[in-house]
Design brief:
Radius of gyration of chain A: 25 Å
Number of strands of chain B: 18
Number of helices of chain B: 24
Oligomer: heterodimer
Structural class of chain B: alpha/beta
Number of helices of chain A: 18
Number of strands of chain A: 19
Largest interface: A-B, 39 and 34 residues
Largest sheet of chain B: 5 strands, mixed
Strand content of chain A: 5-15%
Structural class of chain A: alpha/beta
Shape of chain A: globular
Largest sheet of chain A: 5 strands, mixed
Distance between the termini of chain B: 69 Å
Radius of gyration of chain B: 28 Å
Strand order of the largest sheet of chain A: 2-1-5-3-4
Strand order of the largest sheet of chain B: 2-1-3-4-5
Shape of chain B: globular
């Protein structure tokens, strides 16, 4: 069918919306509530366009095209209405852009600028609502909330958690948790996907930069940093470098410029996780279960399991996540071996994740004191790099520190959905057969699909494997498993859709294209690597030899494994 | 009469397992499947038993709708029972719904054996004795209390106007309200004896769903909830959308201030609604229907529950109704009182167990509605019209009303009007006839100012335009809307800015908060209206500047809200302001520029002064004044320091000499 957009006739597809047709034409219609891939809710009304035949304003995000339609996307009437809507939002919005964590990334700010809002048009009452600082991961500032509903939708429709929803009516409507309690007692799994979709500064991570700065400034402290595999392929975007650029070497250099004493990639402990988890899988295969075994690297998923499927906790791998393995190794093995007092070691972790902040604070994750002292997100790292005046593009690359600087590309793959599975399968195969897989790459578990399945025959045993990302997908898969509709031996679950490359700690306004670029970058690293399996990582072998005996040993269990317990939360 | 599914005698071949296709007809015209004299007699005696006329004892009907009960009908009933007991009189007492003239409730009708039924007004408990003494003991009509008498057998009462000659009832065309206030609402027998469920039975036996849709389309029936969408067309959309399951929803979430049409229909004639729902469900192929009714209507819900239970027990609902293979289950879903849940998509979400927030259309519910299935949503009055259309045909329906708005419309009259209550009139009637004919004009000799039609979504029609004809087109052309049928009448003492403020306050609180223009815009409009009507004495220069700026924004804001809001609630939210601005701009200007409320309603804008001639210096006012603004020596005239006056009006109330003046 043919439609006319701003005087230009174009071919439109049956069933698509005006917004989607306009975007194909390169026309950007502002919207605050639209979410690619989810059905439109028509909440914000900022995307209204003028139907030139009737003079009516219609929401482009939800209105389907029809043959012969004549639309003006930026007519005077449409732009004036948009401006009024933005002015109305600003009327009940705090005037504190300069102090706002959303400053610079805020979509409301951008539209106000673009539409030429230069004064406060409406004065009047503003809602006064307290900050919710109860969560270890996420800060909610309901006063800055414009009720676009994106966080609510991602929490319920994508993640299936529904920790937040609309409450109240009329101008006292707000977004909150059950019984207006804090996030900490809600079913929130701290994944931060809400933070990623929030167009304003109403949702942000709990900022831990200051604690890191304080430690860096303390000469008596040895500050050790680990950085997750998904960070180095993402950080570049914060500095205007092409999405998907791998800048791990320059990042290492930047850490040292900022004063970190040791830099270790979390990919190293990902290799360690692979050893332990593959061993656990092999044990279960030998002893007949329980199946499926679930991965346990993703702390949002673990909390979700504790809240919603406590009966399945026995299926989760007891392995700590790579962050916590690294944390435990640093404080409990490396520090004493290096003649350092663990209390004088400050362990920082840079993660693409907000749930990692929660994980580090779990009581299980420490030996009196927490193993990881501070978790900062990719965004917070970028903030620090800027704060220290470091020009990341002109830095000379540097190597990570020993003894945990060496990593296999299998550990690096952890950053994308399917990576843990691929890495564990490579090593489990070796453990059971004594040989490496002929084709290390397992294509079936790669990519951005919600659920990926494959079968792998190892030593005559056919293992049914599944990879799922996004907790909504995971919940559906779990119910199918419980109902006996699906059967697996090993399931990798990542909280965020696509895995850590799309984590809640990544740069704001992440779009599917960027996520894809980050993923390709990880695959590229694997393709070009010479060390592609965890069990060939010599540093890992050394760690076992010097401290942990062998995978699954008593010592390894003491330091690298954990326990889970059912969790009562408000829903 | 036994449950109609049971065999009437041993000759009848039907049973609940294989129900009679003509059970409804058989009940009054039967027996149809066999011939048996005693069986036919059984039916005759059932009809006699059901009918109130021809009884050997007097029958007392008490208007016990919510409005009647509010006026004291419950106490009236107690008094009636006591009276009867004390005198050992035997009477049948029947609770009926509201006949419509709420202004003179409690209404009690009495039918003495062999005489026409007479309706009495304002029968509060203390007047029961007088009435019953006269009627039951002496057999005389207390003419001062009589409202009207109904046509019936026996010698008419002299001096009592006939129902169809009474000025309130005569101009009405009572189709939907036919049984309201007349019939026992929870008697299936009575409903069926008057031909109830025949339309449903006819549709099931002789018409295809497509034909039912065609008849309703042909009748020109349009949605009575306000939108006026052709009902038959809506049904056909749903009929033509292929789906394994479909739904019909009856929207009984009546929430407009001053509207109580649906409540009266359900309280007075629930079976008519159920029959309408059943026909609609058959027409679109729905096996499940919901009645979404606000929990604030407990009596309506109670009667509906009883009626549904009766219908189910008698095989009028359930599985394989009348052996047609058609199944229908009707469920009641109570709303928690959100105005926005009257909006169809919000209502659907509410039934689904989600928060009642509207979603964009398209897709329309007829394509994807409740649980994603094709769904028809009709208002109570719309559905209550359906049995009549099926029974008497599309042409009959078109015999009243206008070509584009056939049939009748029920209106609820409230506000400054003599006869508050419920009327049903043929479309195309003039507003004059409603307000000054049936409505009885404005009480207390006051002048008519305007009437708000369509509730908070509607607009006002000012004096001078009451020759306007009431149909969808004329109202639309005038810039008003039919709405669901609330008519709130305002007289000269009403401040139109205050009215606009009232509706804006209502809408602002009832907005669901989803879309920005409605949530934020109505809040700002209300603030602007408040600024206009607020006292100016301690206003800062900034505030007065804001006030002027606000006025500039008021109309613009109204247009943006109207054009960009997500649902009907938001799109019509500015109407009360826009229409009062259009017709009463001078009142707004008096408030804004002269800081004066011409109707004397906005207390913040009143100035008080003391007439020196009348003041005796009693000091009462000075003592009462909370801000110490009244000065003056004892026994000499007092005066008010305007700057210190807060405009509370305490002096006016307290002055025994009428010396305080208000401007």
């Amino acid at each position: 069918m043919k439609i006319t957009l701003n005087g230009r006739t174009m071919e439109a597809r049956e069933g698509e919306t005006i917004l989607s047709a306009a975007r194909r034409l390169g026309l950007d219609i502002p919207t605050l509530c639209h979410m690619e891939g989810l059905p439109p809710t028509g909440t914000c009304r900022v995307c209204v366009v003028e139907d030139r035949k009737t003079g009516k304003l219609i929401p482009s995000c939800s209105f389907p095209v029809s043959d012969g339609m004549d639309i003006a996307t930026h007519s005077n009437q449409a732009v004036a209405a948009r401006k009024t809507i933005i002015e109305l939002l600003l009327a009940s919005h705090p005037d504190d852009c300069l102090y706002c964590p959303g400053n610079g990334t805020c979509v409301l700010q951008r539209y106000a600028q673009e539409l030429g809002v230069r004064q406060r048009s409406y004065s009047g009452a503003r809602n006064r609502i307290n900050l919710d600082v109860s969560s270890p991961s996420i800060i909610r500032d309901p006063e800055k909330c414009i009720l676009c509903g994106r966080c609510v939708r991602v929490c319920s429709e994508v993640q299936g958690v529904s920790a937040i929803d609309f409450t109240g009516r009329g101008s006292s409507a707000q977004i909150g948790c059950a019984f207006n309690e804090g996030l900490n007692v809600s079913s929130c799994v701290n994944c931060g996907q809400c933070v990623m979709v929030c167009p304003t500064g109403a949702l942000t991570e709990r900022r831990d930069v200051d604690r890191v700065l304080k430690a860096l400034d303390d000469p008596s402290m040895t500050v050790v940093v680990q950085h997750a595999p998904a960070v180095s392929v993402t950080l570049a975007e914060e500095f205007g470098i092409k999405p998907g650029s791998e800048i791990v070497d320059r990042m290492n250099a930047a850490f040292r410029r900022m004063g970190f004493d040791r830099v270790f990639p979390t990919s190293f402990s990902a290799d360690l996780t692979v050893m332990e988890e593959a061993h656990e899988l092999v044990q279960r295969v030998r002893s007949g279960g329980p199946f499926p075994m679930f991965t346990s690297c993703s702390p949002g998923w673990i909390k979700y399991l504790e809240e919603f499927f406590p009966q399945m906790l026995g299926n989760a791998s007891t392995c700590k996540s790579p962050q916590q393995m690294m944390g435990a190794v640093i404080k409990r093995l490396w520090a004493p071996a290096s003649g350092l007092d663990p209390r004088k070691v400050f362990s920082v972790s840079v993660m693409p994740c907000t749930a990692k902040k929660f994980e580090a604070a779990r009581p299980e994750m420490g030996d009196g004191a927490p193993d990881v002292d501070a978790v900062i997100t990719t965004r917070e790292l970028a903030e620090m790099v800027r704060m220290f005046g470091i020009d990341i593009s002109s830095l000379e690359g540097e190597e990570a520190d020993s003894p945990f600087g060496e990593r296999s590309s299998a550990g690096k793959l952890f950053g994308a959905s399917g990576g843990v599975m691929e890495a564990a399968a490579r090593t489990a195969y070796h453990m059971l057969t004594g040989e490496n897989l002929k084709e290390l790459r397992i294509e079936a578990v790669r990519g951005l699909d919600d659920v990926k399945e494959t079968r792998l025959t190892i030593a005559g045993i056919e293992l049914k494997l599944a990879v799922v990302s996004g907790l909504g997908n995971a919940g559906r898969l779990l119910r199918d498993i419980i109902d006996g509709k699906r059967e697996y031996h090993f399931v990798e679950v990542m909280t965020c859709p696509g895995g850590c490359i799309n984590g809640g700690g990544q740069p704001f306004l992440t779009d599917p294209e960027r996520v894809r670029a980050r993923m390709q970058s990880l695959y590229e690293i694997d393709r070009n690597a010479t060390l592609r399996v965890a069990h060939e990582n010599r540093s890992i072998a050394a760690l076992y030899r010097d401290h942990l005996d062998e995978p699954g040993s008593g010592k390894a269990h003491h330091i690298l494994h954990t326990t889970y317990s059912p969790r009562e939360v408000l829903r | 009469m036994p449950v109609i599914l049971d065999n009437c005698c041993g000759l009848c071949t039907h049973s609940p397992a294989s129900p009679c296709p003509q059970a409804v007809e058989c009940l009054s015209d039967g027996p149809l499947c066999h011939s048996d004299e005693s069986c036919a007699l059984k039916r005759e005696s059932w009809k006699t038993a059901v009918s109130h006329s021809g009884k050997k004892t007097p029958v007392i009907f008490v208007g016990a709708g919510t409005c009647g009960l509010g006026a004291g009908a419950a106490a009236t009933m107690v008094a009636i029972r006591e009276f009867l007991e004390a005198r050992s009189l035997e009477c049948i007492m029947v609770e009926v719904g509201c006949i419509g003239l709420c202004a003179v409730e409690p209404i009690v009708d009495i039918e003495l054996p062999g005489r026409p039924r007479v309706s009495f007004m304002e029968v509060t408990h203390d007047r029961v004795g007088v009435l019953l003494d006269s009627m039951l003991v002496r057999g005389e009509v207390p003419s001062k209390m009589a409202l009207c008498q109904f046509p019936g057998s026996g010698e008419p009462w002299s001096g009592v106007p006939l129902f169809n000659e009474h000025p309130f009832f005569a101009p009405q065309t009572r189709w939907v309200l036919e049984n309201c206030g007349i019939m026992d609402p929870v008697s299936l027998d009575e409903y069926m004896a008057e031909g109830g469920y025949r339309a449903f039975s006819t549709a099931l036996r002789t018409l295809t769903p497509d034909q039912v849709c065609s008849i309703v389309e042909g009748s020109g029936l349009r949605g009575r909830g306000g939108g006026g969408f052709p009902t038959g067309r809506k049904w056909r959309f749903a009929l033509n959308t292929p789906s394994g399951s479909k739904y019909v929803i009856c929207n009984a979430d009546e929430g407009d201030p001053g509207a109580f049409m649906d409540r009266a229909v359900i309280e007075g004639d629930p079976h008519r609604l159920i029959e309408g729902i059943a026909i609609a469900s058959y027409a679109v192929g729905a096996n499940n229907a919901y009645i979404y009714i606000r929990a604030e209507y407990p009596l309506a819900i109670r009667r509906l529950k009883v009626a549904l239970e009766q219908a189910e027990r008698n095989g009028l609902l359930g599985t394989n109704i009348f052996d047609s293979g058609f199944d229908l289950h009707i469920m009641i879903k109570m709303g928690a009182g959100a105005f926005v849940c009257g909006e169809e998509t919000a209502l659907i979400h509410s039934i689904e167990g989600q928060r009642g927030m509207p979603s964009p259309k398209p897709p329309f519910p007829a394509v994807s509605g409740l649980f994603g299935k094709p769904t028809v949503i009709n208002n109570v009055e719309t559905l209550a019209n359906v049995p009549g259309i099926i029974r008497q045909g599309a042409e009959w329906f078109r015999s009243k009303g206008t070509p584009n708005s056939p049939g009748t419309k029920v209106f609820a009259l409230s506000g400054k009007i003599a006869n508050t209550g419920l009327i049903e009139v043929a479309m195309g009637i003039s507003l004059d006839e409603i307000l000054f004919g049936m409505g009885g004009g404005i009480p207390n000799g006051k002048a008519f100012k305007a009437v708000q039609i369509g509730g908070p979504s509607g607009g006002c029609i000012p004096a001078g335009h009451t020759d306007l004809l009431i149909d969808y087109e004329s109202l639309g052309a005038f810039g008003a809307m039919m709405g669901s049928g609330g008519l709130v009448v305002m007289d000269e003492d009403t401040c139109m800015v205050d009215v606009a403020k009232f509706f804006m306050d209502f809408i602002q609180r009832e907005s669901c908060g989803k879309c920005i223009p409605c949530r934020e815009g109505t809040r700002r409009m209300l603030e602007i209206l408040r600024a206009i009507t607020r006292g100016y004495r301690d206003e800062t220069p900034e505030q007065s500047l804001e006030r002027f700026r606000g006025i500039l924004n008021l109309e613009r804001l109204g247009q943006v809200i109207r054009k960009t809001s997500l649902c009907g609630l938001g799109q019509t939210a500015p109407n009360p302001v826009l229409s009062t601005l259009r017709w009463f701009r001078d009142e707004y200007e008096a408030h804004i520029f002269e800081r004066r409320c011409p109707a004397g309603v906005c207390t913040g804008l009143l100035t008080y002064s003391i007439d020196e001639e009348k003041c005796r210096g009693c000091t009462l006012c000075a003592k009462k004044c909370p801000s110490g603004a009244i000065k003056g020596a004892r026994k000499s005239p007092h005066y008010i320091v305007t700057q210190e006056c807060i405009g509370c009006g305490a002096c006016l109330e307290v002055c025994p000499f009428g010396a305080v003046k208000v401007q």
